[in-house]
Each structure stands twice: as C-alpha cells, then as structure tokens.
Amino acid sequence: MPQTRRYRTRRxxxxxxxxxxxxxxxxxxxxxxxxxxxCIALGAIFYTAYQRAxxxxxxxRRAVEHLLPPGRVVKRVGPIxxxxxxxxKPSPSAAAARPPAASxxxxxxxxxxxxxxxxxxxxxQGLKEPYNAAVPRAEIPVVQLEMTHAVxxxxxxxRLVWLTNPEEEKDxxxxxxxxxxxxxxxxxxxxxxxxxxxxxxxxxxxxxEGDAREMAFVPVPTExxxxxxxxxxxxxxxxxxxxxxxxxxxxxxxxxxxDVVEVDETNLWLAVRVDPLLVQTLVAGEYAALxxxxxxxxxxxxxxxxxxxxGDSPPRLKVEGHADDIVPPGTISDxxxxxxxxxxRRRDVGVVLTWRAPGDxxxxxxxxFYDIRYAPVPVSFxxxxxxxxxxxxxxxxxxxxxxxxxxxxxxxxxxxxxVRAIDEVGVAGPVATVQFVTPSLMKCPRPExxxxxxxxxxxxxxxxxxxxxxxxxxxxxxxxxxxxxxSTAVRGMRESSPIWxxxxxxxHLLAVQGETVYFTLLLAGKLREVSARxxxxxxSNGETDLAADSVTLYRILCPREKDSGERFGDPLxxxxxxxxxxxxxxxxxxxxxxxxxxxxxxxxxxDQEPGIYRSQWKV
Length: 619
Known about the structure:
3 domains; alpha+beta; flat; 6-stranded antiparallel beta sheet; Immunoglobulin-like
C-alpha cells in the first residue's frame, strides 16, 4: 500500500512537471508569436514610411513632367562663346573703352566680335554702354538708321513662380532655377530699345551657385505677366499657365546652352543667347515679359542666380539692332463681319471677321501681329476689349484674305469691331472698324412627348394567325405563342407600344430627311398550315410619294444555339413584296418557330418634302 501511494505520488509529480513544461512551452510560443507580430508590424510601419518618403520625393521631381509638350519643335540657337575676363576689376575708363582682357589670354578682337554678332559692351559690371547708347528713334539721324546700336535692358520686375510647394522659404533675391519645379518671369526695361529691329540678344544673370546649363525662354503676354509677377497665381493655376506658355501656338520658345562669364574670382555671370524674335515681341508690345526655364535635366545642380532687381546686379538683356523701320503698316481694307449658324449656341453666339491683310511697310511685306478689339456700341477703340494674343493668329502676307472667329458674344446685340496691324518695332497702322448686330441664340425645338399606344396582339379574321408590330428595341420569343392563343405570355413583350396602335391597326413612324426607320412585323400561329403575304403600298402625302425602293423587307431567321438550345434572331433574309411566308417551303429553315418576324425598313430621301405620309399595307 505505501509503495502504491509513493508510486502514485511520483506519477502525479511527473504529470505536474510535464504540464508545467507544456504550459511554459505554450506561454513561450505565445510570447514569441506576439514578438514576431510586433516586429512585422514595426517593419511594415518603417517600410511604409520609407515608401511614402520615396514617393513624395519622386512626386516632387516629377510633379509636372506630364505637362511638358512631347515632341514639340524647339527653335534652338547656338551657344554663346565669350572669353573669360580678367581677374581684376577693371576701371570705369577701361570698361568704357572695351571689355576687360583675360589674364594670360588676349581679348577678342573687333573682327571676332563682329563675326559672332556679340555686342561689344558685354560688361556685367554696369549698365552704361561704351558706344552707340540707347537713343530714341526719333532722335537718330537718318544717316544712322542702318547703323547697328547696342543697349542693355535691365530687369525691372520679376518673380520666381513655383509649380510645387517649395521645401523651404526662398529669398526673393536668390533665384534657384529647378527643372519642372519653377520658372522665372522677368520684365525688362524695353523702352531703351523702343523702335529697334533686334538682331542679337543675350540674357545675363549673376551666378551664385550651380552649373551653367541649358535654359529656355518663352514670351509672356500682359494678361499673364501681371498676375505672375504680382504673385496672384496659386500653384494649381501656375501648372496650367506653365503648360499654356510652353504650348504657345504662335511663338516657339528659344533654348540654348548657358556659358559662364568670369569677371573676377567672386563675380560669375550666366550668358545665354536668346532668339531675337522673342525680344522683338517685347519691343512690338505683343508680349510683356520673358519666362526663364531650366532645361538641364535632373533637379540637382540647377543654377542659383541673383534675382535682386533693385541692386547693382539685376538680370539683363544685352541687345543690338538698328532703327531703320520708319514706314508704318498699311490700312486694313475690306473689313467685313458675318454671322454663321454653326457659331450659334444655347447661351452665346459668334461671328466671323474677314479683311484684306496689309503689309509691314505700307502694303508690302507681312505685318508682325494684329490688335483686335470689340465691345457693344457705343464704345471707343481705347475702351474696347482687346483680344488676347493666344487667340489672335499671325498676319498673312499683304494682299491675302485674313480673318478670325470671335465667340462668346451676346445675342442680338450691336457690336463694334476694331482691327489694326502692328509691325515688329511697335508702330501701329490705321484702325479699321465695322459694326454688326449679332444673330439670335440657337433655337432648340422642344421634343414632343413620346406617345404610348395599346400594342397588343390581334387575330386575323378567319385565320389561325395573330399579328403585332414591335419597335426595334423590343424582343420576341420565336418558340412561344402569344397569350391571344391561350399559351404562356411572350417574353419581353409589352402591352404598350410607342409605334403600334392595336385598336386602329396603325403604325406611327417619325423620321427626318435622310433617316432610315425600322419596325418589326410579327406573325404568330400555324404558319405550317397557312401561308401569308405582305403587300406594302407606297407612302404618299397626297402630292408627292416616297420612292418605290424606299421600303425593304427582311425575314428574321432564329436558329438554335448549340449549347443552350435557345433561339436567337440574327440572320436577315430578303423578302420581296407579295412573297409567301409559311407553308411547306418554311419547314426546313423556320421549323419550330411559332412566331416569325419580318423586319421592315423605311428610308427617307434627303431631299424629300416634309409632311405626313401614309401607306396601307395588306397582310
């Protein structure tokens, strides 16, 4: 007995120890599982944060890459080549004589400079010109009209426009140009070159950091330059303007590689050649400012330039040209205004202006751009609304017929339209005007309410046949008899119909000139024992008839599907007028069809006289 008790005691102890070990194992497994889950969760959190930061960085770099116009032809000009200047600051007298010479390298000769057509006054130190200073055209003697003059156009106002939120606050005096993230809008003192025909232009800005990269220039119209420079454009709107500037339909942007001009060890300048045509648009008054873009590729390494417009080193345009264009454009002739019904809308209307294009010099050449204005009368030319340059096409050669479509006008209103031509130096020709009363709004006829008729089946007297007309959108089951015979109702059929009036046995059709309308004539019953014929009569309104071939009939064959065994209407077999339907000849093709469909096609000729046409068909 004691041995048995000890044995039991030891056994109980072993069981308790085993259960403790198993319980410890379960607790350990639970702890390890919780630790593993926590590790996975923390790893997922860190990985998600890393991916979010990575996506944010990528999105910041590629925020507006989709706005770049793909495959756009860019007018490029060759890079400017300027020899580095001396490391010592030149004296004013030396600067007035010629550009400072580089240490160890000879200064470019006058012949070299003339061959490259680079102004001889590319001195980043100041704005004074060493020769041929800017003189108003009226004060230039006639003998000096063909002489080439040079002038510096300093930047007066400007702003860096961001397409994405900047990472930190930027100093207005330090302009970090970054590709696809911002652009710089600068307005220059263009009055210094008033009346000039620009031959060469170089943009210069003091370089603080970064590399000399490829830069692009786009003209900015007045209606966009003012909001951009004044900072009244939000980032979302700036992206749209960025796309609009780079996709100007009339003026291509200029792109060229920038070079570094070294004045001394701490005074470096960027020099980029600009298409003279863009500067000419500023001189003519067509555009008001230039937008500067970084075209260098990656974001890192963009140029950081000095953008202070009130200090001693503002950005500038070095231009050269001559003031030999003294003949104003010719007069706009044969100015006419007409309405077009295709320009009439539900809320506004449009008109077409046409005229005979003048020339740049009188009636010779091609003008630079048009100044088109309009407003309801009474109004003067100065008070009229000026059509934006985006909507104004470039002039054609003198003597050609030119024109424009103006939309968004008030209906039945007297408008005054003004057109004048302006040449490349900003000289405007005489103003031509015409007054016109706009047409009325487009009249949209109110459609009649769709009528609904009792479209049930009818029994043909003395025959085991039933007849019904179905609209093209209605379906029918060829294997089931209609309820008029006491069988199950036909699937998809409705008791009401938009075209079939059962009580008067009338089909109502509505069509316009040149339209084809359809309906389906259904025959149900014992077509194996009885044959039917359909004889349509010509459509007539009492005076004129539709053509004899305007009505075409087709039989709808409903074969069985191999998988489901159900019948579907697909093939159309031509049916001539008066041909028999049913009988012995239909046992092969139409076996098993309790309902047969005949598709009726009615074509209305484009020149058919409008009216109500009637036709009587016999079955």
